[in-house]
Structure prediction request, 68 residues.
Amino acid sequence: MPRRHDDDRRDLWSVFNRTQENLTKGGLSARAANGRRQTTRPVQGIDQSVRLNRALWLLADGLRQLKA
Prediction:
């Protein structure tokens, strides 16, 4: 889900950037299976941020290779 109107493109780079921003900043709301509202928390540690970014990059690169 884009946070800004300009981020509504569907190319791999835009989806990667949106996913990265949503996972690292947190603040997204949704309903849990039991009906309660839940909000994601931001990634605060540098180690967790680096690990998350590395994993996201590997996933995006794998998708790029499948498409090519």
Remarks:
- The longest strand covers residues 29-31.
- The chain has a mean pLDDT of 91.
- Helices lie at 12-25, 46-67.
- Residues 46-67 form the longest helix (22 residues).
